[in-house]
Specification:
Rossmann fold; alpha/beta; 7-stranded parallel β-sheet; binds NADP nicotinamide-adenine-dinucleotide phosphate; 2 domains; binds glyoxylic acid
Length: 330
């Protein structure tokens, strides 16, 4: 019996691989490091479908090298690594994994916010370095009050909404700016819509949840950082290039803002000698927003189901280019 061929560019949960293997011949990239562009082209040269992730850059040249490809299934919600218009032109369905990771990513965003505000990482390091010589001092390790302060959300989508809900539990006021105003959510949760400028000026914490697009590249640069409160803390769990890294370094070094929590960075991985890592008012995590066992497993299973559906000529549970359904007759 004919079985389509599938390439999986990184190890994923075994039950997701099992699901794919029921309907396809599967090959798995054996390394932790992503394949190089040339290796990726070679891997995709003769396959019908692929499971990929955010480190795999799928541009027109990769698609050109994959003439049989019918389904690309991304294990992520962000799609900035894939040329979607080119995929659509070539009638390749693109699957992705929104929703199942929103809560865990917002959990981490709130954790980062708390860590920077209350100096968790900095004080832990201080203890480990043997500096805890006075049991308690009334003026040591003061940080920013989280409860009762104002959280500004940029991008009130799946993750932004979960972040805003967490803030409500901490009695924070929530301001948001998003491409589309969400009046229902305002009514239901008491969030307040504001211009981009007002969110920057009025928030004690600013959490970024927009996708990386040509419009959001360097969304936060010198001008925006200078428009924030000096006491503001910036949290970024979107994509590194949404924040201008050089401007952020300047802002943290010169105290234009008080601190930053970054789960994403430009470039990624951050070089260990990067000057931002020498600052105490920043916490940097290695892009682990959705990295809980449950969320990752659900992402892998959803990506596997998207892939299998596309290979079977069916609609995907989550598709980034559903406009293809009509021309594909599904
Ligand atoms: P989503 O549901 O699509 O939400 C994105 C929100 O941003 C939407 O509400 C959207 O528009 C808004 N938006 C888009 N462009 C905008 C602009 N120019 N100005 C203002 N708002 C804009 O996506 P999500 O699931 O929340 O994920 C958001 C991003 O987080 C992903 O694209 C990915 O890059 C990143 N992410 C990172 C991690 C991690 O591990 N750190 C994990 C998951 C996701 P509307 O206002 O029109 O709805
Ligand atoms: C992770 O970064 C994602 O976009 O899901």
């Amino acid at each position: 019996m004919f079985k389509p061929r599938v390439y999986v560019t990184r190890q994923i949960f075994p039950d997701a691989l099992d699901l794919i293997e029921k309907s396809a011949e599967l090959e798995l990239w054996p390394e932790d490091q992503p394949p190089s562009p040339e290796q990726l082209k070679e891997a995709l040269a003769d396959v019908d479908g692929a499971i990929i992730n955010v480190m795999d850059h799928i541009d027109a040249s990769v698609l050109e090298a994959a003439p049989k490809l019918r389904v690309l299934s991304q294990v992520a919600v962000g799609l900035d690594n894939i040329d979607i218009p080119e995929s659509t032109k070539r009638e390749i369905l693109v699957g992705y994994t929104p929703g199942v990771l929103a809560k865990s990513t917002a959990d981490l965003a709130f954790g980062l916010l708390l860590a920077v505000a209350r100096r968790v990482v900095e004080s832990d390091k201080w203890v480990r370095e043997g500096n805890w010589k006075i049991s308690h001092h009334p003026m040591f390790w003061l940080g920013s009050e989280v409860n009762g302060s104002t959280l500004g959300i940029l991008g009130l989508g799946g993750i932004g909404l979960e972040m805003a809900k967490r803030a409500k539990g901490f009695d924070m006021k929530v301001l948001y700016h998003s491409r589309t105003r969400k009046r229902e959510l305002e009514k239901e949760h008491g969030f307040k819509y504001a211009s981009f400028k007002r969110v920057l000026a009025d928030s004690d914490f600013i959490s970024i949840h927009v996708p990386l697009t040509p419009e959001t590249n360097k969304f936060i640069g010198e001008k925006q950082l200078k428009a924030m409160k000096k006491s503001a803390i910036l949290v970024n769990l979107s994509r590194g290039p949404v924040v201008d890294t050089e401007a952020l370094y300047k802002a943290l070094k010169k105290s234009w803002i008080a601190g930053a929590g970054l789960d994403v960075f430009d470039p990624e991985p951050v070089p260990p000698e990067h000057p931002i890592l020498g600052l105490d008012n920043v916490v940097v995590l290695p892009h682990i927003g959705s990295a809980s066992n449950r969320s990752r497993r659900e992402m892998h299973l959803l990506a596997a189901r998207n892939l299998v559906a596309g290979l079977n000529g069916e609609r995907l549970e989550e598709c980034a280019n559903p406009e293809l359904y009509e021309s594909l007759g599904i």
